[in-house]
Amino acid sequence: MQYAGRVSGHPRPIVGLGERMSYLQARMMELLPVKLMSRDNVRSMRIANVADAKLPFGIEPTPLEAVAPVYLKGAYPRSRFSAFRYKAGRKPREV
Fold this sequence. Notes:
Number of helices: 5
Structural class: mainly alpha
Strand content: under 5%
Helix content: 40-55%
Number of domains: 1
Radius of gyration: 19 Å
């Protein structure tokens, strides 16, 4: 998360919560009209979810550091404005 914030140009402090505070936060979020997180999500985050299996069809994994700058920051300095143009109903600018 720190890397993604730094690359996107929006670094934020990350505060680690203990198990009890995580469950309390999730319980409070379950009460919201839109469930952003549940206690089940907290339980599932305690288990590692990275596979060591070989990928099919000769697919090679790509390191995050190789692709994140393009996705998070954009290929061009002003490419982040494309989303605003789309929401406003305007065509994205050609580069």
